[in-house]
Structures are given as C-alpha cells and as structure tokens.
Amino acid sequence: MDSIIIIIKRFLYAHVSGPYQDAVVTCLILLSIAVMAVISYYVCKWLLYLLGVIIDKTPTKWDDDLFDHRFMRVVSQLAPAITVSRLLPAFFRVHNYDYVHWIATLATFYIIWAATRIVVIFFGNLYEAFYKRPKFRAYAVKGIFEMFKLIAVGLGVIVGISVLIGKQPLAIITALGASAAVLMLVFRDTILGLVASIQLSANKMLRRGDWIVVNRHGADGEVVDVSLTTVKVRNWDNSISTIPPYTLISESFRNYQPMRQSGGRRVSRSIYIDMNSVRFCTAAELAALDSCGWLEGLGVDRAARQVNLALLRRYLERYISHHPDVNAKMLHMVRQMEPTQSGLPVQLYFFTSHTGWKDFEHTQAEIFDHVYAVVAEFGLRIFQTPTGGDVMSLGNNCGPFALQMKTDNTQ
C-alpha cells in the first residue's frame, strides 16, 4: 500500500509543474480520494445487494428480520468513510495540512457515528424479530433493548468526543465520573426505568398486550407500549394512561392476562333470599318441579324431606355444570353465605369459558336471568327493599280497611 502511494505521488509530481505544483497535486489527490470513496460506496452497496438476495432465499426468517434493507444501507455508508480515513493520512503524512487533518478526523467521527447507528438498528431489528415470534415474545421487553441501545449510544458519544478533541476515551470517562451526581439527577427516571424494565422482564410480570389495572393511576386496559421510561396503557374508553415502569415495581397492580390464557373468567355473585320463604315444599310443588325435570336424580320422595332452598341450590349447581358457556373443568358451586339484614345470600361461583368482556357479560346475564326466574318455582322469594311503588300499593290496599275501621268507631 505504501509503495503504491509513493508511486502515485511521484507520478503526479513528475507530470505536474508550475508555481502551484503542491496545490494542484493536493487537489488531484483529494479528487482521486473522493472518486475512490464514491466507487467504494457503490461496490459495497452492490455486494450487500447480492448478500440481501441470498438472505431472502434462505429458509429461515431470522436473517430477514435482522439484516433488513435499512441495516444494509447504513453498512454501505461506512465504505466511503473508511476509504477517506485510510487514504488521507497515507497520502499526506509527510506534509502538515490542517484541513486534511480535519477531514480525516471528521471521517473517523463519521465512522464511529455510523457504527453506533448500525448497532442501534441491529438491536431494534432484534426486538422486532423476537416480538414477531410468539415463542420468544415474552423476552421482547422494549426496555431491555433500549438499555443496550443507550449503552451503545453512550459509548459512541464518548469515543466520538475523544476523536474530536484528541483525548483518550478513558480521560473522558474519568471526567464524567466526577459529575456522576449530576448525571444521577438528570437521568434519574431513565435509571429507575432501566432497573424496573429488567425486573419486569426477569419476573415475567408485564408485556405488551396484557390487560392490567393500576387503581392509583386510573389505568384499566391493554398495554400498548413498554419503553425505558413509560408504560402506555390504552384504557377501555380509548384514553391513554402513562405510567413510569418503576411505579409498577414499587406498587401493586393487577394483571388479567393469566386469566385470559387460563380459558376461564370467574363469576362470583349472590342473590338474596327472603328467609321467611324458606320452608318444605308441598306435594303439588314437588310434582310440578319433577314434571319440569328440576328434581333430576333425586325423586319426589327424597325431595319431600328437603327444604326448598336446598333443592334450589342443587338444581342451580346442575344447571351451571351443564351450561355450554361455563367451564365445567374449573371450580363451580352454589353456596349459602352468612345471613344478613337484607336476606340470606346464595352465591353462584363459576368460571365462564369466554374471557372476552362482551361474551363474559352476556353469559353472566343469561345465567342470572334464569336464576331470577326460577327462584319463584321453588316457593322462594328474592329479598328486595320496598320501593315507593310498594309503599303506595300498601296504602291503597289498606285504604278501605282503614275507612271501615273509622266508620265502625264512629258508630
């Protein structure tokens, strides 16, 4: 390489003469270097195009995601900068040209900047590749990849500054160490977010697409983005809640994603029975229940020795277990709770096979519509606090009786 450069310079000085010989030779050398930089760019671009064609034809899709066209384009931009940074010092090492020195310095700085950008794009492509594959989606936590991007950018900035000012990178790091306290204050949220993102990823606590509830921040919806400093939640009213990641670590939040994946969503609701209606059924009532098939597997004789509330609980358990939208593999029961002043609570506890909100509400409403309608068939009443209409009806019913009592007293 050195011999070729010497031959070129001798050739130029032998064929260029005049009072401006050095200036003309310098211009010719710079022009030649510029032409070689352009040629190197297109040669590298052509080679990378061939490499891209080979990558597209490979059976695996990992290389397609990692080495996309944007990545190849940035790599091709390194070729002219490397050409300039190598040839300029070689041609002008003998003479002291300040502007040539600065051109070489800027070319080296550009190489560092392009290399940093290549690393950042690579980690971005790696994140997208992980997120596209359900098997690895749990590891596609945006905060982790942003951490690596931040480290790459930080190293690139330190090395780039060291090239511009002519100092060693270690000296810059030492100077930064003296201002660590200031950096801690400036990048407090970033550092806390970085630590929180690592914890959220390591413990598999949160990922994009999860349904979470954070009561303190009024968030109730799906996670749409998990970055280094924020977690964005699209609430069910389509508003966006922004939460710092470290808040999810220092405080509690509820993640409903395991419920979605389990195949069952819980229903735990009670109806309140008027305790004055709890009794033994009459023979006519038992015959009517048996004709409807609501005493299946029990019979009239055995049912006659049981209370109507027990018959209702038995029937509801059988109804829930055979309902097509109830997950019968999960726990389901109808149980009696502690009596209250509002009546006797009878709780229905089961899991629907649909976890989507709309289907879940429809299934729950359908089951309880049937429950409210069937209670009276067992001779029971649902407790309800008297309304204004009930009071008026009572007054109307008692009106003639009160008038008769007043007439009798007058006579």
Written account of the structure:
By secondary structure, the protein is of the alpha+beta class. It has helices at 2-15, 21-57, 62-66, 69-76, 78-91, 98-132, 142-165, 169-178, 180-186, 188-202, 245-250, 257-262, 283-291, 300-303, 308-321, 357-374, 388-410, and strands spanning 211-214, 219-226, 231-235, 240-243, 254-255, 265-273, 333-336, 344-352. The chain has a 5-stranded antiparallel sheet with strand order 4-3-2-1-5. A 3-stranded antiparallel sheet has the order 6-8-7. The mean pLDDT is 78.
Chain-wise SSE layout:
Blueprint: H1 2-15, H2 21-57, H3 62-66, H4 69-76, H5 78-91, H6 98-132, H7 142-165, H8 169-178, H9 180-186, H10 188-202, E1 211-214, E2 219-226, E3 231-235, E4 240-243, H11 245-250, E5 254-255, H12 257-262, E6 265-273, H13 283-291, H14 300-303, H15 308-321, E7 333-336, E8 344-352, H16 357-374, H17 388-410
Antiparallel strand pairs: 1-2, 1-5, 2-3, 3-4, 6-8, 7-8
Helix pairs in contact: 2-4, 2-5, 4-6, 5-6, 6-7, 7-8, 7-10
Brief overview:
This protein is of the alpha+beta class and 411 residues long. It has 17 helices and 8 strands.
Strand content: 5-15%
Poorly predicted runs are none
**Shape field:** elongated
Tell me the radius of gyration. Answer: 40 Å
- State the end-to-end distance: 137 Å
Question: Sheet with the most strands?
Answer: 5 strands, antiparallel
Q: What average pLDDT do the residues reach?
A: 78
Q: How do the helices and strands follow one another from N- to C-terminus?
A: HHHHHHHHHHEEEEHEHEHHHEEHH
Strand order of the largest sheet: 4-3-2-1-5
